[in-house]
Write a structure and sequence with these properties.
single chain
């Protein structure tokens, strides 16, 4: 087993950890925003280019060069290749989830129902950017198997899930 700490080890925020088995299968633990690194390059009205966010953040070393990114945002060699089986999002703070929107829609998220409810609510009422938008425009019916009772109560029966979510807890 190999554990790689990509970011967050010497600063507040930016937690991104890979755990890989000898077989080559991996999972990610968090995919957060490094506040200090982000602040060196960006501010309220100066952000990464929406369609080139992955390229911009790679050049600035704010995300790791691993094959986990969305096809519409990443260079071909870093598009999701199936090796990473899921992302465990420990809790709904930006330093743990802030860049998860860059990850491929094919990578399921594992999180508590409370974390899911907070992230879904933030996605529905906030002003999402491509890098932190965890949910797409697809609407899910309130009785969909992916939508928990906690999430229904929080979002009044609506959510915009566009990826697999494995709630636990």
């Amino acid at each position: 087993m190999k554990i790689t700490i990509h970011d967050g080890h010497s600063t507040i925020g930016g937690n991104k950890i890979s755990v890989c088995a000898g077989s080559g299968e991996c999972f990610l633990l968090d995919f957060g925003l490094n506040f200090a690194g982000w602040g060196e390059f960006f501010e309220e009205f100066l952000n990464p280019r929406a369609g080139r966010a992955v390229e911009d953040l790679l050049k600035l070393k704010l995300i790791p060069p691993i094959p986990v990114y969305r096809e519409d945002l990443a260079p071909r060699e870093l598009v999701y290749d199936g090796r990473y089986k899921f992302v465990f999002l420990s809790h709904a703070h930006a330093d743990h989830t802030g860049l998860a929107g860059l990850l491929s829609w094919d990578i399921p998220f594992l999180m508590t129902p409370e974390t899911l409810a907070i992230l879904a609510t933030d996605s529905n009422v906030g002003s999402p950017k491509v890098w932190n938008s965890l949910f797409g425009a697809k609407r899910v019916a309130p009785n969909d198997a992916l939508v928990s009772k906690d999430l229904q109560a929080t979002t009044r029966g609506k959510t915009s899930l566009n990826r697999s979510v494995w709630p636990f807890g």
